[in-house]
Amino acid sequence: MALPLEDxxxxxxxxxxxxxxxxxxxxxxxxxxxxxxxxxxLVSDRKLYIRGVTYGAFRPDPDGNEYYDLDTIERDFALMAxxxxxxxxxxxxxxxxxxxxxxxxxxxxxMVGLSAEQYLGFVIDKRRxxxxxRELRERVRRCAGHPALLAYSLGNxxxxxxxxxxxxxxxxxxxxxxxxxxxxxxxxxxxxxxNYPSTEYLELPFLDFLCYNVYLERHADLKAYLARLQxxxxxxxxxxxxxxxxxxxxxxxxxxxxLDWQIRTAFAGGCAGVFxxxxxxEWHRAGAQVDDWAxxxxxxxxxxxxxxxxxxxxxxxxxxxDLSWPRISxxxxxxxxSRTIRDCLExxxxxxxxxFETIVVDDGSTDHxxxxxxxxxxxxxxxxxxxLSNARNQGMEAATGEIVAYLDDDAYPDxxxxxxxxxxxxxxxxxxxxxxxxxPPVDGPIADCVANAPGGPVHVLLSDWEAEHIPGCNMAFRxxxxxxxxxxxxxxxxxxxxxxxxxxxxxxxxxLGFHPAAVVWHHRRNSVLAYWKQQRGYGKAEALLxxxxxxxxxxxxxxxxxxRIYSRGLTRSLDFRPVRARGEHALLAPAHSRVVxxxxxxxxxxxxxxxxxxxxxxxxxxxxxxPRAHGAGLGEHEPGALPERAFRSPLAAxxxxxxxxxxxxxxxxSRRAPPRAAGGRVVRGTARDPPLLSPIKSPxxxxxxxxxxxxAIAPC
Length: 716
Fold this sequence. Notes:
Blueprint: E1 36-38, E2 41-43, E3 47-48, E4 50-54, H1 70-82, E5 87-90, H2 97-105, E6 109-113, H3 120-124, H4 132-143, E7 149-156, H5 160-166, H6 168-185, E8 191-195, E9 210-213, H7 219-233, E10 238-243, H8 247-250, H9 252-268, E11 273-276, E12 284-285, E13 288-289, H10 306-316, E14 328-334, H11 341-349, E15 356-363, H12 369-373, E16 379-383, H13 388-398, E17 403-408, E18 411-413, H14 417-427, E19 432-434, E20 437-438, H15 445-451, E21 459-461, E22 466-469, E23 474-478, H16 479-484, H17 497-507, E24 512-514, E25 520-522, H18 528-548, E26 564-568, H19 570-573, E27 593-597, E28 610-614, E29 618-619, E30 624-625, E31 680-684, H20 700-703
Parallel strand pairs: 4-5, 4-11, 5-6, 6-7, 7-8, 8-9, 9-10, 10-11, 14-15, 14-17, 15-16, 19-24, 20-25
Antiparallel strand pairs: 1-2, 2-3, 12-13, 17-23, 18-25, 19-23, 21-22, 21-26, 22-24, 26-31, 27-28, 29-30
């Protein structure tokens, strides 16, 4: 929750806090690696799910020090650790190093707030009485290198009206400057910014991971909005840095129940972490103690509420509680894959799933692939070289699972890959489900260039969770559905089989799903020659696709995708149209918004609560509403309308809302165009506005781009 500027001391100097009594000092835990980004999640010595609470703001002492009573801090941290909380978020005040020491003694991580939102006006108005960069350097130096440090948060909720007044580009440049200031002081530190739905449109691709404060009181609303935020985040981790419910107005039992499903929904939706607002009902703002809210999971005396037990249970079972998981057969098709298949099989050995088998189909390899596979506890099927589709069919026929998951021999999965796939199948009627494929960061500069080049395996989404195409390196199907269409078409020997099977399943009336956390790491080609050979094979496959599916191609020979292609790198630079003319960030224009006044704020708060209801975006070129636009549909109400039932209490946030006294949160309409994903471009593919490249393309397609710039053809 944002604090008004009057409640903050910009130039306060932290005095040494009181030392804790010896009885509450715990022994220091063993050293642990600093967290790093591992695709959609954080990784320390192992995959790290952030299970956190916010801590503060508290009444400062006469010298302005907020975290001065280390006895209380030690007791709080000990109780947190005992309840399976592993991270503390300090939202508004950079903590003293003694607090980080206490966190480390109890095995807790700390997300440190740097309060950049305080200085925005000083910078943009070119005031000389404040140097935000110098101030941030001093704050970072206090914390840099500490073993309890999880990440730095540049700021918390730059208020929507401030961002609109100064303009999004100036705010974005300001945050990027401060990001580099932090990185210069602590190059290994992770840096984020805590955003909220009212300023979702800010484009911050430089951040290491994305954070949002989101308050929603209905399961369907939160699930839908999370799907949208995952597409905003792209390949980066997403965290919810504030969720909660006021127990004073809703009751303690309702608070416990709400936090239980909010946490479970967030982790099931692929979030890397969740912070509950707040640890305690003790809360200080605007120079006064707030006694009209009760968001804490303990009361002011640190006595546990029912919510604490609910939070602990949900955290312990994250990301999924124990279920009756369906049997899955993982099929790896390989041909001369000795260079990468060991990584693939070792990754499968780390998969956390109780009921699966691995089948390797060796399609006539002439290298040492079979010898390597023989070292692992998998089923090996050796055939003569008959092509990729035949190998996939061999695996399907041998599968004993009700779900058949396909993984390429140059890819390896996230440990929870199968759980995210299985959970999506269990919650939907999709015939197939896919997920992202991310290039490992250690493959070298050429592989990194290839990962950013056109022609790679990408997914095409019809909505935030329904796909038109899922790439073959990471796709799973119900076995009965695959058998019903006769499996894969054998004419596709090298590529194109995934595109064909997706179209055939949809032709039968089935749908395909997508889960952003069902991640596999997919090695890209590590030489220009290997990339060229791959693209030649893709070109031949597309020629077969065009002959089989002529209705899918327009007059220029381009695929006419109904959905949007999520890609990255060079694809982005090839899009010659002005960004703002494409209607991708309709939230930037508050002109078509309706302001709904909220009830009075609590005692001690300033301003009023407001909610902005964003209208569906318009196609900038045609001046009409875009029927293809999609986003997170909030519940079962009509898209574009905010249900009155979302306003449950005077202080509970409406449909999509961050808890800020000045917040103007937009509505995540089901008709809003999806944003550009981080590191990638969301591109609309239609017959009128075709993409240059489909998920599989030959280099010759680039030649067709000449002149495409004049007609503003969008690449994939």
